[in-house]
Write a structure and sequence with these properties.
The chain is built from 7 helices and 10 strands. By secondary structure, the protein is an alpha/beta fold. It has a single domain, classed as Rossmann fold, CATH 3.40.50. Helix 1 crosses helix 7 and helix 3 packs parallel to helix 4.
């Protein structure tokens, strides 16, 4: 792989919008950089649905006598997701070793080509997927996602402890307002972790019409552009 920078989007809490933030981040950069998305959520992949490519299957190409998956492309973004490999009505009922093997296959058997940035959409939790991604990829850092909700904040703090143990730099966090009206908590994760931006509630995002929402991700674009160019 010839990939300049690799970051993960993560939270131990499910439903906070990791996949949406991943997609928004990729879209904000895709006109200026070569961007890829690795959907590491094997049990509940979403990127193929968000980008409306769920009816497509990746081609198999041969390079140097090895077979690779050709990533699907949408909005100039290369996307590798188990959701594009498994049938929609099939669930991945796998134990940890099979999950790790699937993530490794997506990482090493995808023909990524040249990328400025690979964004890894992490599943919820702090288990096998985290260990596999951190072990197989040289992550330049992770961006955490949380909602202004006590449970989400507490689970995000668990993510901080996990990535600290894995020696992965935490670049900052994004506050995702995923409801139109919500009693907000005063979010404090760690004095050394900055808030990158707050994403206000938007019906386009809620309904996954994300191609109409690039204007909401200007701060994300600025932040990630600095990471790419660092």
């Amino acid at each position: 792989m010839n990939i300049k920078k690799i970051i993960a989007i993560a939270s131990a809490k499910g439903g906070v919008g990791k996949s949406t933030i991943t997609a928004l981040s990729a879209l904000s950069l895709s006109n200026d950089f070569n961007i890829g998305i690795l959907d590491a959520d094997i049990y509940g992949p979403n990127q193929h649905i968000i980008f409306n490519i769920d009816n497509l299957k990746p081609e198999i190409v041969q390079k140097d006598s090895k077979k690779y998956l050709k990533p699907l492309v949408s909005n100039n973004i290369k996307i590798a997701s188990m959701g594009s490999i498994l049938d929609d009505d099939k669930a991945a009922v796998w134990r940890g070793p099979m999950l790790s093997g699937a993530i490794k296959q997506l990482i090493h058997s995808t023909d990524w080509g040249n990328l400025d940035l690979l964004i890894v959409d992490m599943p919820p939790g702090t288990g096998d997927a985290y260990l596999t991604v951190a072990g197989e990829l040289d992550l330049d850092g992770v961006i955490l996602v949380t909602t202004p909700n006590r449970l989400a904040i507490n689970d995000t703090i668990k993510s901080i402890h996990t990535f600290n143990k894995l020696n992965v730099p935490i670049l900052g966090f994004i506050e995702n307002m995923n409801f139109p009206s919500i009693a907000t908590e005063d979010i404090f994760l760690d004095k050394n972790i900055e808030r990158i931006t707050q994403i206000p509630f938007d019906e386009n995002i809620y309904n996954m019409s994300i191609t109409n929402t690039q204007n909401l991700s200007d701060e994300i674009k600025f932040f990630l552009t600095n990471i790419i160019n660092a």
